[in-house]
Amino acid sequence: MPTREQLIESLKKVFDPEINIDVWALGLIYDLKTETDGIVKIKMTLTTPMCPYGPALIENVKSEVKKLEGVKDVEVEVVFEPPWQPSEELKMQLGMM
To answer: Residue 48 is part of a domain; what is its CATH number?
Structure first.
């Protein structure tokens, strides 16, 4: 069974292709749970509901997490509440301030 830290490290390998920042640093991952049966449940959002890379991003998240030992399947729930808001540090990094 992977640890929370292993899950996070795995998610740091998945980059948003438009922004070139990983989904963990972007704050797109809202919740991570590992069930005793080897199922990993991830609640995440996208930068916008109309993100053209959304389906590919979700598949990349699943693919990376499935590489971890003990993971049988990955379930990703995409939510838009609360809406994604970049942190102040991220806004500066993206030139939004």
So the answer is: 3.30.300.130
9/96 Cα distance (integer angstroms): 27
Its pTM stands at: 0.90
- By the 8 A CB rule, do 44 and 80 touch? no
How many Å from the N-terminal Cα to the C-terminal Cα in the chain?
A: 41
Q: Please report, in tens digits, the pLDDT of each residue of the chain (97 residues total).
A: 899 999 999 999 999 988 899 999 999 999 999 998 999 999 999 988 998 999 999 999 999 999 999 999 999 999 999 999 888 888 888 777 6
Look at residue 97 and tell me if it is in a domain.
no
Residue 82 belongs to what domain range? 4-91
Strand partners, 29: 44
Helix axis angle for 4-11 and 54-66, nearest 10°, is 140
Query: What are phi and psi for residue 31, nearest 5 degrees?
Result: -160, 145
Count CB atoms within 10 A of the CB of residue 24.
18
